[in-house]
């Protein structure tokens, strides 16, 4: 037993030294504060739920795509030639459905029933994404349940969010594909990248505004939206590259599994990045740093974070949740960061 305690103490001492170091450096303290709050809010589970509904919306979208192509290619010879000369014919699974073994267009048939099922499934999955996104933002901002919007308000916001994100994703995907898919000139590729990033940042601002409590000023949402828009643009470019250069010529079996697994991972990663961007807004707005790696002692930011999580449990106007702490849990003042120490030394 004594040996175990002796072996643990050096490890704890090292971790505490790392803790003091990150608390003294603002960039590290903010970064760790974002990661810490992401875990406190169980945002990873919320990201998985967003990814589930996002994946659920993809297959009705593919049904709509195939049905629309079947209706459009029926008697349009010029469009058939365009499809034969495009990269769409080389896509796994979809390519075999469009182009036969001898290179001719297959007679795809579209129907009204397929369109109805496709639109219904797309709305079901997409509105699921918007509802879970609103839940995630309420959890991230620790909004008490008693003041959260009701179902009608959430549904109206969800429809608005669905329209904004749907139109924006189409525009940014087309712009992002110019830089990774095709033989566009270099100025056009640069323009596509810049335009895609700008639209993505605007989409993040709009999405955060529609899903965040009205008491939070829009200006507090912009920094995280900028980070999220840039990260999403990188993710879009990566997805376009994989489709245009890897899955395009893959075998049908490999392409099928690669497409499905890649799509799930891509959506989940995008959901995680979005929630990290939202957590950055909360940490920055409420100054929830520095956070402690090892407790005790707790920092003031630790206590304010846990108090907000406790008050989040209020469900009725008659209910009041209070958070109290023992005297031993009094927060310790954070060590001065490196920038403050340099300024003090200069003044001396």
Q: How far apart are the first and last residues' alpha carbons, in Å? A: 50 Å
What is the count of helical runs?
12
Biggest sheet descriptor: none
Number of E strands? 0
- Runs in which pLDDT lies below 50 for 5 or more consecutive residues are 1-7
Order of helices and strands: HHHHHHHHHHHH
Overall outline: globular
Structural class, from secondary structure content? mainly alpha
Strand content: under 5%
Nearest-integer average pLDDT: 78
Radius of gyration: 25 Å
Helix content: over 70%
Seen as an oligomer or otherwise, the chain set is: single chain
List keywords for this structure.
348 residues; mainly alpha; globular; disordered N terminus
Explained architecture:
By secondary structure, the protein is mostly helical. Helix content is 71%, strand content 0%. The chain contains 12 helices and no strands. It has helices at residues 2-24, 26-40, 43-73, 77-84, 94-98, 112-140, 151-180, 186-211, 222-245, 252-286, 300-311, 338-347. Helix 8 (186-211) crosses helix 9. The two termini are 50 Å apart. Mean pLDDT is 78; it is low at 1-7.
């Amino acid at each position: 037993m004594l040996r175990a305690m002796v072996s643990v103490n050096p490890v704890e001492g090292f971790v505490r030294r790392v803790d003091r170091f990150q608390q003294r450096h603002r960039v590290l303290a903010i970064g760790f504060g974002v990661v810490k709050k992401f875990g406190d809010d169980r945002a990873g589970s919320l990201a998985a739920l967003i990814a589930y509904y996002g994946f659920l919306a993809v297959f009705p979208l593919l049904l709509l795509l195939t049905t629309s192509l079947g209706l459009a290619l029926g008697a349009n010879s010029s469009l058939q030639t365009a499809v034969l000369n495009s990269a769409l014919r080389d896509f796994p699974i979809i390519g075999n459905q469009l182009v036969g073994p001898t290179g001719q267009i297959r007679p795809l048939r579209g129907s009204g029933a397929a369109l109805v099922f496709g639109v219904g499934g797309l709305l079901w999955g997409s509105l699921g994404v918007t509802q879970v996104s609103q839940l995630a933002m309420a959890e991230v901002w620790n909004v008490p349940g008693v003041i959260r919007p009701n179902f009608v308000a959430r549904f109206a916001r969800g429809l608005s969010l669905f329209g904004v994100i749907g139109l924006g994703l189409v525009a940014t995907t087309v712009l992002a594909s110019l830089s990774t898919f095709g033989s566009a000139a270099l100025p056009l590729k640069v323009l596509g990248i810049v335009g895609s990033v700008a639209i993505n940042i605007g989409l993040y601002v709009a999405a955060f505004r529609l899903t965040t409590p009205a008491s939070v000023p829009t200006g507090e949402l912009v920094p995280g939206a900028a980070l999220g828009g840039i990260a999403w643009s990188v993710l879009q470019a990566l997805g376009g590259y994989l489709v245009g250069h890897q899955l395009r010529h893959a075998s049908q079996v490999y392409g099928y599994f690669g497409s499905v697994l890649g799509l799930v991972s891509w959506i989940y990663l995008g959901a995680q990045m979005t929630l990290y961007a939202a957590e950055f807004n909360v940490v920055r707005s409420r100054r929830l740093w520095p956070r402690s790696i090892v407790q005790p002692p707790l920092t003031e930011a630790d206590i304010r974070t846990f108090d907000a999580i406790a008050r989040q449990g209020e469900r009725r106007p008659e209910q009041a949740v209070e958070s109290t702490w023992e005297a031993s849990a009094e927060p310790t003042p954070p060590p001065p960061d490196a920038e403050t120490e340099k300024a003090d030394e200069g003044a001396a």
